[in-house]
């Protein structure tokens, strides 16, 4: 018997010696896979997953590290180890020593030196965010298109719901194209492994929180993408999904505890009714359904009230910021999460990275509903998300109204004006993310009836009003289509694949309208980038009349005037009503046409167009 034991010990040592990197015998996962010195929060909780790992005793002997608690849970394949990493901690490899009386093995755990950030992180109104759906943008590496060991097969590019092969290398290859457009930050829809049977391309059903999907690249390539972005002075926005993960996630297939996810007797989906959360007449039934119901059958709803789940997710976000130097988070399906958890997550993230960019997806109706999720808002509900901003769907509804309905008291520009008058509800409306489209919405060109003039009007608005504008890939070349199915608004960027019949990343290949519009966006976005009044100044708007709307972006010394004419007739605008802001300015430069205006008393605006004038 003891000979067997000795053999097993020798075998363990041999395995450890020949395979010092990776997981030891009996260990499948350690989350987080490594950590850093010098973090503001000295505590780290390791979730260790391995067959019957709970039957082992754990010893850690590393200067500066103290084991605070080892917690065994319902499933013996997990232990949770709370560590305190002291101030004197040095980088190195810490050994986790497991023994159960008959066998001993060691698992190395690396502690890295925390790196200094190479540039300022965070997001504010100086930014212009470009949203990419990586599977549909550009295929920079055809060798990763097919992954035969993953559940979803490769069906080629004709299927709207299958993977097309776009990847991180494809994005890196086009960072200069993106920068040239005037962009300062890129938000990619999630890149984590989604080893699901179908629809894995969209990325919102993670099956590993610490691993980039191999069909997109690797963790190392993601890190390179971040560093290539930073080299170009562009920021990295990571899309995080705290609400749910994929049904094929290894921890879903072997749940640490039954209440790791919200359990229902039969599949129960959310009611998708965000307002139920703040409705003073609302029922607990509706609230529970909203929060604990599953977003989709293949997306188990994580129970963030379980403190181990909460810690797991929060550490994961901090890990990615530290690992890849992420600059900001877009938080998916924000309103479906446990709100206390989301507040704790924001607190923990800001504790490590004060001012990190964060904005929540709040796909709702009503400024009062949207504002509820905006940090430091003035609604006095007792809830504070602490988030700088939210996705401004409310403003989008007004922009849609502007291009679809004639001017009226509450319609067209009237809708835009009224919407902005409600900004007092937000903590800081300038941190709201404004947009014309995203991967879930009909392409704005289609929403605007394929009218380039309307497209330009709306573009001018989001690039000059308050907020952080966000762009959806391909809108600059007038990609179109309505949703339903979603794949219609997630088409491949023409030229992103070798052998595409046309490469629209090259401006010379664009058709008349496309080229004209592309240059419009590029000129305005690059002007915006250097305009202090637009990116850092105040906003003053005037009541719109007869389909014409005037607003100003200004500082103490500089002023930009924006005039929007949504009528089908040219207008000679008398400016006497705007003296409050125009006082002292005698000339203006149309920043799109470069034409100098020497008489500001009356300004001619062509039908269905906008003018951006830098006053002098
Ligand atoms: Ca590929």
Low-confidence stretches: 1-21
Radius of gyration: 27 Å
Shape: elongated
Small-molecule binders here are:
calcium ion
The average pLDDT value, as a whole number, equals 95
- Could you give a short account of the major beta sheet? 8 strands, parallel
Number of DSSP-assigned strands: 24
The end-to-end distance, rounded to whole angstroms, is 93 Å
Beta-strand percent range = 15-25%
| Category by helix and strand content | alpha/beta
> Percent of residues in helical segments?
25-40%
Spatial sequence of strands, sheet with the most strands: 14-13-12-11-10-9-16-15
The number of helical runs is 16
Describe what you observe in this structure.
The protein has 616 residues and is α/β, with parallel strands linked by helices. Helix 8 links the parallel strand 12 and strand 13. Helix 7 packs parallel to helix 8, helix 10 packs antiparallel against helix 11 and helix 13 packs parallel to helix 14. It is elongated, with a radius of gyration of 27 Å. Calcium ion (CA) binds next to loops.
């Amino acid at each position: 018997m003891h000979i067997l034991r000795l053999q097993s010990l020798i075998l363990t040592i041999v395995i450890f010696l020949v395979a010092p990197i990776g997981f030891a015998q009996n260990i499948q996962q350690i989350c987080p896979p490594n950590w850093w010195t010098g973090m503001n929060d000295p505590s780290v909780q390791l979730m260790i997953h391995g067959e019957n790992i709970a039957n082992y005793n754990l010893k850690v002997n590393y200067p500066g590290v103290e084991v605070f608690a080892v917690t065994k849970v319902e499933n013996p394949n997990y232990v949770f180890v709370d560590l305190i990493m002291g101030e004197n901690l040095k980088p190195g490899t810490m050994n986790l020593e497991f023994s159960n009386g008959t066998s001993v093995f060691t698992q190395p755990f690396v502690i890295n030196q925390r790196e200094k950030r190479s540039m300022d992180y965070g997001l504010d109104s100086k930014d212009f965010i470009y949203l990419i759906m990586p599977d549909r943008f550009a295929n920079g590496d055809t060798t990763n298109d097919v992954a035969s060991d993953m559940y979803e097969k490769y069906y080629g590019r004709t299927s709207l719901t299958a993977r097309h092969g776009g990847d991180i290398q494809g994005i890196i290859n086009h960072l200069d194209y993106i920068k040239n457009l005037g962009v300062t930050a890129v938000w990619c829809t999630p890149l984590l492994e989604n080893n699901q049977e179908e629809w894995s391309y969209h990325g919102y059903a993670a099956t590993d929180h610490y691993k980039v999907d191999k069909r997109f690249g690797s963790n190392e390539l993601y890190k390179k993408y971040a560093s290539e972005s930073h080299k170009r002075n562009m920021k990295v926005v990571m899309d995080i999904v705290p609400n749910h993960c994929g049904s094929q996630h290894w921890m879903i297939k072997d749940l640490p505890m039954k209440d790791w996810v919200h359990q229902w007797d039969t599949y129960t989906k959310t009611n998708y009714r965000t307002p139920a959360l703040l409705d003073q007449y609302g029922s607990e039934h509706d609230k529970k359904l909203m929060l604990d119901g599953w977003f989709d059958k293949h997306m188990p709803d994580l129970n963030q009230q379980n403190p181990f789940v909460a810690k797991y997710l929060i550490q994961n976000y901090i890990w990615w910021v530290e690992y890849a130097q992420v600059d900001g988070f877009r938080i998916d399906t924000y309103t479906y999460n446990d709100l206390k958890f989301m507040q704790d997550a924001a607190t923990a993230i800001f504790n490590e990275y004060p001012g990190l960019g964060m904005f929540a997806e709040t796909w709702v109706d009503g400024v009062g509903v949207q504002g509820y999720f905006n940090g430091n808002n003035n609604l006095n509900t007792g809830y504070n998300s602490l988030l700088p901003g939210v996705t401004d769907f409310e403003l989008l509804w007004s922009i849609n109204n502007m291009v679809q309905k004639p001017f009226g008291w509450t319609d067209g520009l009237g809708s835009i004006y009224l919407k902005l008058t409600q900004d007092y509800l937000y903590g800081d409306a300038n941190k709201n993310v404004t947009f014309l489209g995203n991967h879930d919405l009909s392409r704005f060109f289609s929403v605007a009836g394929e009218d380039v003039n309307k497209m330009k009007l709306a573009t001018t608005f989001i690039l000059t009003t308050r907020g952080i504008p966000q762009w959806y890939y391909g809108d600059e070349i007038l990609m179109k289509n309505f949703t339903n199915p979603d794949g219609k608004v997630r088409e491949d960027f023409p030229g992103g694949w070798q052998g595409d019949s046309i490469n629209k990343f090259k401006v010379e290949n664009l058709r008349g309208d496309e080229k004209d519009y592309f240059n419009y966006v590029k000129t305005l976005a690059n002007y915006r980038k250097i305009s202090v009044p637009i990116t850092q100044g105040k906003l003053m708007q005037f009541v719109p009349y007869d389909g014409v709307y005037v607003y100003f972006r200004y500082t103490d010394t500089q002023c930009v005037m924006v005039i929007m004419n949504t009528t089908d007739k040219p207008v000679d605008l008398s400016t006497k009503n705007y003296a409050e802001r125009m006082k002292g300015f005698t000339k203006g430069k149309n920043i799109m046409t470069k034409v100098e205006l020497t008489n500001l008393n009356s300004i001619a605006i062509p039908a269905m167009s906008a003018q951006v004038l830098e006053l002098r």
